[in-house]
Amino acid sequence: MATAAGLLLGFGLDRTLGDPRRGHPVAGFGAAATKVEDLTYRDSRAAGVVHEVVLVGTAAGLGIGLRRLVAGRTAPASRTKNRAERRMARAIGEVVVTAAATWTVLGGTTLARTGREMADRLESGDIDGARALLPSLCGRDPEVLDADGLARAALESIAENTSDATVAPLFWGAVAGVPGLLAYRAINTLDAMVGYRNDRYSRFGWAAARTDDVANLVPARVSGLITTVLAPVVGGRPADAWRAWRRDAGKHPSPNAGVAEATMAGALGVTLGGRTQYRHGTELRPTLGDGPVPRVRDLRRAVRLSEAVQLAAACAAAIAAYPRR
Q1: Positive or negative: CA dihedral 40, 217, 262, 120
Q2: For position 303, what pLDDT does the model report?
Q3: Which of 52, 108, 317, 324 is 20 to 30 A removed from 148 (C-alpha atoms)?
Q4: 280 closest CA partner among 167, 89, 140, 96
Q5: d(C-alpha 181, C-alpha 202), whole Å
Q6: What Rg do the C-alpha atoms of the chain give, in angstroms?
Q7: Residues 127, 114, 243, 169: is their CA dihedral positive or negative?
Q8: What PANTHER family does this protein map onto (predicted)?
């Protein structure tokens, strides 16, 4: 019950406060990972495996240590008067630590706020402002995108990151508690840092990219299922989201992003994918869904659906965690 309560409280903190503006622990982990990379980097898969194991193992170990700490294993038993008080103190400690870890690893509220801000700038005609905001959502080249291109890029990022930033950490929190939360965020952060197919990281980043694929395999499909069921929230039809998933998700180069983007496209009744311009070049992505290309109004609908999916995922995670306690 403590894990379930902690997940819900942490989700509530994220909904209320968003990401910490200063001293974010994930940013601190990223800075530490950069220093570790200076020591571990070699142009080989083996070096990348070592890098991944050291950093993810450290994050998981921290979670295990925190769980043991609140369980009273590192504190003298005399600090509690009796067994009932000890159980109560342990439960409260588990809730607090789980809530803090959940708040730390979630990014759904900031994602939704950024999506709404992007829509505001596009609706007001502030294209330069929208272009300046896009890098906080994805790695597209904003200078070559018009208003509709910016809306599409933001919408696709919201679809993918609804799963990565909320559903997946909640899933792993329900499965493995605080160690699961911290280990997942480490995996996802390392993929964002080194999981690229370029000259420096094509071999070194292989382990990070593949580990992230595995870690998101089930959560992405949970996210897709919730998106499909909640399509009516934005005037869509579950049948359309399901059809887009079954028909189009496998076309995407990512085994997980394809599910998130295809179900979002189907729920919104738009077409995602196509010509996609990054700073390193242009890719021709497969199209997902049916209908017109997304407009600014569709970006707002995507934000509403994302928030609904996040709430449903938090409730589902709490329910899944509850029987384990």
Answers
A1: negative
A2: 97
A3: 108
A4: 140
A5: 27
A6: 20
A7: positive
A8: COBALAMIN BIOSYNTHESIS PROTEIN CBIB
pLDDT band at 279 (very low <50, low <70, confident <90, very high): low
Domain ranges of the chain: 2-324
pLDDT tier at 324, thresholds 50, 70, 90: very low
pLDDT (tens digit, 9 = 90+) per residue, 82-124?
Answer: 777 777 778 888 999 999 999 999 999 999 999 999 999 999 9
Q: pLDDT tens digits for 114-168?
A: 999 999 999 999 999 999 999 988 877 888 888 888 999 999 999 999 999 999 9
C-alpha distances out from residue 76 to 66, 92, 93, Å? 16, 17, 15
Q: 85 Cβ partners below 8 Å, 6+ apart?
A: none
Phi, psi of 253 (to 5 degrees): -65, -25
Q: What's the pTM value of the predicted model, to 2 decimals? A: 0.91
Element (H, E) at 288: strand 281-288
Cβ atoms of residues 144 and 276 within 8 Å:
no
Alpha carbon distances (Å) from 124 to 58, 117, 120:
46, 11, 6
